[in-house]
Each structure stands twice: as structure tokens, then as C-alpha cells.
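Section 5.1 Outputs to date
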Amino acid sequence: MIWQDKNGAALTCLEKVRVLRENDAELRQILQDAFEDGILMGASADSMLRSFEAALETLKDPTAEVCSSRRLGGEEL
């Protein structure tokens, strides 16, 4: 996986890439565990995948609101 910045350039900071790889591995393991739990409890694979997709769709960019509504002393910049 190659992570990119907002301009499409590859992230090259080794520490950032290391952290992103670790986060990716942890997330994949958590998803796999949850998927298996759901299947073992009788949920269909399709319904589990739809649940994960729905969760992804609710993610919010933590910088989006900061960039679009910056204020200085209560006034728009």
C-alpha cells in the first residue's frame, strides 16, 4: 500500500509509513475477527461486509471542518 498526501504524492516519512502499516495490520485483524464472529453467530458474509462498508461510509475527515470553518476572534478568515 502506498499512502498519499492530499496532492497525490506518496508519503515518504518512514515513521509515518510505519505507523500507517501497523494501523492497517491491526485494523485488518480486527475486521477478520469480527467477520469470523459474525459468521459463527449465524450472520451471512454479505451482511457482515455490508455492515463494514456502512461503517466506512460514516468516517469523517478530522481536518475537513477545521479547513472549511476556520475562525479568528469569531470572524471567518
